[in-house]
Amino acid sequence: MGLIKQNRYKIGIVFAIYSFALLAIGLVNFPYLDDVGRQLWGYSKFAEGYSRWGSEILAWIYQGSRHLTDTGLLSPLVTAVILTAASVIVVFVINKKQPPVSAFVVSTLLGLNPWFLQNISFRFDSPYMAFSVLFSVIPFLWWSSKTAHFFLLSCVGIFLMCNTYQASTGIYIVLVLALSFKELLANGSLVAVIKKTGLAASAYICAMIVYLLETKLNPDIASRGGNVAIAALKDIPAVFISNSQMYLQRIAEQSTRIWLLLFVLIVLLFCIVSILAASTNKWKGLLYAFLYLVLGAILSYGVFLIFPEKLALAAPRYAYGFSVFAVITCLLVLSLLPNIFSLAFSAKGLLYLFSFYLLSFPFVYAASLAYQRDSFERQSMLLADDLKNFVSSKEQQVYATTLFKDSPIVENTARNYPILKDLVPANSALFWPNQVLFKTYSGIDIDIQPFNSAEFDKSRSTLKSTDYYYDIYQKEKALYIIAK
Questions:
Q1: Cβ(475)–Cβ(462) under 8 Å?
Q2: Which one of 32, 74, 160, 400 is CB 3.0 to 4.6 Å from 481, fit for a cystine?
Q3: Does the pLDDT at position 123 exceed 70?
Q4: What is the pLDDT of residues 217-269, one digit of tens each?
Q5: CB count, 10 Å around CB of 91?
Q6: Of 327, 375, 368, 315, nearest to 351 (Cα)?
Q7: pLDDT value at position 226?
Q8: pTM score > 0.85 for this model?
Q9: 1 pLDDT exceeds 90?
Q10: Bridge-partner residues for 483, per DSSP?
């Protein structure tokens, strides 16, 4: 408690940064993917659909009911508290001395990195996804305690993490690597480090086995197909290598040039600082740094490395482990910095610049969500105005080549931020969240099915309406909407 009291103003800065960013996203009031169904029908289905019993039970406690309702801006504030706790723990675990302000600022990238923005965009899920990060780091408060204490708390923490959000499986691994690296750099016993790493690995495996057994009790989890399937034992080496390459390539593709450039400079700085801070042979220090960087970058993907399904390609929220690795690397730099003014000044300046570019992105993202939502609402009203005279009942068959156009402002912003197109849901998609949103905004209770206009015979259909956006044809009792 004394350490918290001494750093209360720095902790306040962390909470303020999280609150500003999360409230900026929350104020947009964007119903993000699964939020659409939960807002309208109040179901949870965290356990049923995803085997996330931790999220399920926490949702009941938080809501005071098994029927969920949108709690507005309270949800981002709760998420900010949870992520603040996780960031502060990581800072104190990495830097046992008096951490500088820069360490606390950098630590906010733990929850505000571009790949975690999807997670905090969910108005219902975000607190529980944040808990998965917190559960992953709590055991390290006992890293230096008795073996049994650390083992037991690691088992519990990893099991709870899996029950809140499984994409956090790489965080524990990266922290083990970081703390082992620090001990080796301080000329600690290699045997002792191997034993401690083995203990952590044993706890990790035990927790994963228990969680795997839990999922076997859930017959609905099999319906998610490849998203939950582990590769066959004989295929694991090939799948591991393939996923490692895909994962790192995907991170690079979704990053801006300035993010990549600054991170490369941070990696070089990390190697220099590791050599200068090494209490052992300098070449050994460089070797340890290299091993940490390679293993940390790859293993940050967690158990998804042995999944045949390439989840990092599906959505950014499956790949935020690399960002956690980057944050921990930055904190290691600050904890190892020698007392050389020019080097310390340059290092902190580089880390502040890196933090600025990444922490500014959540606000860009929030604005993009607002533009996309406004564009969807406006086009929904226009289409509804065209359809109202032709749709007689909800049984009416309606087909469309696509739904709506994306906001031109979002398209322009995505030129600078490649990841944006994977974060902001496309207005054109005919998937169920957009279908439900259209029904909600327009009041027309129909399901719009996709069709290929190239195979559509206009000569056998009647043109019912044409305007700047659509041609609407009728063939027998079905309507066909061809977007222009």
A1: yes
A2: 400
A3: yes
A4: 876 665 555 566 788 889 999 999 999 999 999 999 999 999 999 999 999 99
A5: 24
A6: 327
A7: 57
A8: yes
A9: no
A10: 470
Note the pLDDT tens digit of each residue in 313-327: 999 999 999 999 999
Q: Determine the Cα–Cα distance for residues 422 and 317; give it in Å rounded to an integer.
A: 10
| Residue type at 100 in one-letter notation | P
**End-to-end Cα, the chain, rounded Å:** 63
Q: Give DSSP secondary structure letters for 451-484.
A: --GGG--GGGSEEEEE-SSEEEEEETTEEEEEE-
CA angle 221, 222, 224 (to 5 degrees): 75
Structure tokens at 23: 């409230």
* Structure token pair of residue 366: 């929030």
Tell me which H or E stretch contains 399: strand 398-400
Rounded Cα gap, residues 410 and 415, in angstroms: 9
Angle at 319 between CA 216 and CA 317, to 5 degrees: 75
Stretch 165-182: mean pLDDT: 96
Which is nearest to 28 in space by CA: 128, 124, 121, 126? Answer: 121
Residue 22: pLDDT over 70: yes
- Is the pLDDT score of 404 beyond 70? yes
Backbone φ and ψ for 27, nearest 5 degrees, come out as -65, -20
Q: Exposure of 262 by Cβ count < 10 A (0-12 exposed, 13-18 middle, 19+ buried)?
A: buried
Domain extents in the chain? 2-338, 366-483
Exposure of 231 in the CB half-sphere (CA atoms within 13 A): 19
Q: How high is the pLDDT of residue 389?
A: 82
Beta pairing, strands 478-483 & 448-450: unpaired
Separation between Cα atoms, residue 130 and residue 120, nearest integer Å = 8
Pairing of strands 478-483, 470-475: antiparallel
| Distance, CA of 200 to CA of 198 (rounded, Å) | 5
Cα torsion 67, 70, 76, 78: sign: negative
d(CA 33, CA 22): 17
Half-sphere exposure of 101 (CA within 13 A, CB side): 7
Q: Tell me the one-letter amino acid at 301.
A: Y
Q: Whose CA is closest to 11, among 97, 84, 95?
A: 84
Largest CA distance in the chain: 82
Pairwise CA distance, residues 88 & 7, whole Å: 10
| Model pLDDT, residue 392 | 77
Residue positions counted in the chain? 484
Q: What integer pLDDT is reported at residue 259 of this predicted model?
A: 97
